[in-house]
Amino acid sequence: xxxxxxxxxxxxxxxxxxxxxxxxxxxxxxxxxxxxxxxxxxxxxxxxxxxxxxxxxxxxxxxxxxxxxxxxxxxxxxxxxxxxxxxxxxxxxxxxxxxxxxxxxxxxxxxxxxx
Length: 115
Fold this sequence. Notes:
Number of helices: 2
Helix content: 10-25%
Strand order of the largest sheet: 1-2
Structural class: mainly alpha
Low-confidence stretches: none
Order of helices and strands: EHEH
Strand content: 5-15%
Mean pLDDT: 85
Number of strands: 2
Radius of gyration: 17 Å
């Protein structure tokens, strides 16, 4: 519940240069993004959407590794060990605040317990 792929996207603009399927590796999200006619569609391979190429999906792969591997497959540099974030251009409205989301529904998206 709440994680289903929508039936359509409210997109009235021109086809995007790049669309990235971050929903998973299923045909519903592949088809939804393909309908936008992007110049490039980054997605994991699935036998039900043979027109969309991409790397294989590994269900138990850590999210950080998974998404970096997807980007690398499409020629985008991505290092799963580099966790640095660029310093924001504007000062924080909440100086000193930090947010860490340690949990998730899928083990592949959970923060390691020993961290």
